[in-house]
Design brief:
408 residues, mainly alpha, Growth Hormone, Chain: A
Amino acid sequence: MQENKFLTSKAALITLLIGCFVVSVSMGIRQTYGLFFQFFENDLNVSNTFFGLAIGVQAIVWGVFATIFGIIADKYGANKVTIVALFIYAFGIYALGNLNSTGFLFQLNLGIFVGIGLGGAAAPIIVPTVAKHFPNHNRAKAAGLVTASASVGMFLYPILSSTLFKYYEWENVFNIFVFIILSAAILSYFLKQPSTHEGSQNNQNLNQTLSEAFKEAFGHKSYLFLMAGFFVCGFQITLVATHVPKYVIERGLDGWTGPAILSLIGLFNIFGTLTMGYLADKYSKKILLSGLYFLRGITIILFLFLPGSNFLAIGFGVCFGFLWLATIPATFGIVAQVFGTRCLSMLTGLIFLSHQLGSFSGAYLGGYFFDNFGSYDYAWYCSIALSFFATLMHLPIDERPLKRVATV
């Protein structure tokens, strides 16, 4: 009966709850940067391209440090890296609003410091940390819960930001965020590493070194297909999060539709990630991922080519939100299922680095196309093509566990 329980230990419960809070904070605040662009543009003389570059730099730094922090977390525990990352995150946010972050300092604070913070305190570190406490038949559900908590943050923080703008200067809104981030840093001390005897571990893989895990993964075609698919995910969600607030205004829609889309994405992502977490423990994860990317392509096509309206914006937020981070439970679930959990944070971190290369492309190209051609359309065309590329990339993935790694 013990094996059938979702929560099998107190450590699993503590790690799940704190992991959910940390991810809701780190990912929720990240969802608001597009809403601050008007203040960056007016007060810091930041152009679309320069803002897109900062988000792109942030994405690359996030991906690199997710891998570095993942290696450290696999060996020493996630709580140490998460605490350090959140303090760096808090400093980057504080500096943006209080230290006249123009020119290079804007790139340093929003791009590098915030990127480092996300590298150790967002889903790529927290999801594997939580997943290690759960056996394979419950792992995607646990990943879905953590990812859903990110969605809660993504829903709440755009609303919170828009509300706070009515009462405070944008710099003070960032100061409020700093306090929340530091609170998450304190709680991160209690993130737990599972003991080696817990059922969530893949015991036949306990002696594998990081270099062996690296070589094994890159010698497996399915791992490379997952990396290609996650590149597409990064391109799409960062293009939307960074540039949709201005895109809807360019199409003549009401100004409230930008924040509404971001909030609806966060809200319906809760349902999407929980649904994917449930389905991924019962059905083929690669087929679910293939179908998800296909539906993303259709959603973007409808948003781009149907007559612009506020109702269309709301519909896009609902539909794309359901598909937003639903890639994580199935993608990370395949990695754990095939390779085991011994080096899970590193392996998912490397896949996430590919995601962030896509994020850089989506953020930067969106701004570049707009500044040079007066339209975001070319970035959207790229996003549509990539959707169908990812649809095909997931079909040949082999989900079977490697013989030397027996999952539980």
